[in-house]
Amino acid sequence: MSATPMQRMLAGELYRADDAQIQAAQAATREWLVRYNAALELAPAQRHALLAERLGAVGAGSEIRPPFHCDYGFNLRLGSGVFLNFNCVILDVVEVEIGDGTQIGPAVQIYAADHPRDPAQRRDGWEFGRPVRIGRNVWIGGGAILLPGVTVGDDALIGAGAVVTRDVPAGATVAGNPARIVSPRTPTA
After folding, report:
1. Is 78 helix (H, G, I), strand (E, B) or coil?
2. CB 100 within 8 A of CB 59
3. How confident is the model at residue 188, as a pLDDT?
4. How far is CA 117 from CA 21, 39, 123, 127, in A?
5. Looking at residue 75, what is its pLDDT?
6. What are phi and psi of 13, to 5 degrees?
7. Which of the 8 DSSP states describes residue 19?
8. What GO molecular-function term can you cite, just one (predicted)?
9. What's the pLDDT score for residue 44?
10. Engineering a disulfide at 174: which of 103, 135, 165, 179 sits with its beta carbon 3.0 to 4.6 angstroms away?
């Protein structure tokens, strides 16, 4: 039995987003985003309840300040005490995990969506996803961009405006475009 386009998308395989099931999921997310993004004046607990309606997981005390944008929501997993500031964008065609206590600055963009390098496949509308994993107690500065498939280790720091094109080791500080290690992990007392 052949996999549906939605199953192929979730598995990180080539798929086309013009599939009816995928478009229905996107429409449901857009409707949810309208409600969530109108909820800025609500108490954090009320916004947390809204997040729990759509996200794959949302830990205790996690907060996303609206406006917020994502593709599906159900592929996004937040640990406890995660904070995303205003205007974050997460393209979650596959799983995006954000670990406990991670803080994400305004206008950060996290992309799990990718496109074939072959121009004919792109022209025909094919795309795929690569999971993004962000560890615990990570700090991501405003305007940073994380590209598909990257893993950020626990306790890492990502400078404002950095473009993260490859994995970031635990405890490292990276900055720039493309992001490079500017400070290796230092032992803590």
Report:
1. strand
2. yes
3. 55
4. 25, 39, 11, 10
5. 98
6. -95, 170
7. S
8. acyltransferase activity
9. 87
10. 179
Q: Which amino acid is at 39?
A: A
DSSP letter assigned to residue 91: E
Tokens for 8?
């192929």
Residue 115 annotated as catalytic: yes
Q: What pLDDT is recorded for position 189?
A: 46
Retrieve residue 11's tokens.
Answer: 């598995």
Opening angle at CA 145, ends 140 and 148, nearest 5: 115
* pLDDT single digits (tens) 69-85: 999 999 999 999 999 99
User: What is the chain's Cα-based Rg?
Assistant: 17
Q: Which position has the token pair 């917020």? A: 68
Task: Give me the residue label for tokens 């857009």.
Answer: 30
Q: Six-digit token pair at 85? A: 């500031």
Q: Where in the chain are the domains? A: 5-183
The per-residue pLDDT for range 5-21, each reduced to its tens digit, is 999 999 999 999 999 99
- The residue written with tokens 């996290």 in the block is 110
User: Beta strand 126-129 with 103-104: parallel, antiparallel or unpaired?
Assistant: unpaired
Catalytic site residue from 115, 166, 177, 178:
115
- 118-174: per-residue pLDDT in tens? 999 999 999 999 999 999 999 999 999 999 999 999 999 999 999 999 999 999 999
Q: Which CATH number fits domain 5-183: 2.160.10.10, 3.30.70.360, 2.60.40.1670, 2.60.40.10?
A: 2.160.10.10
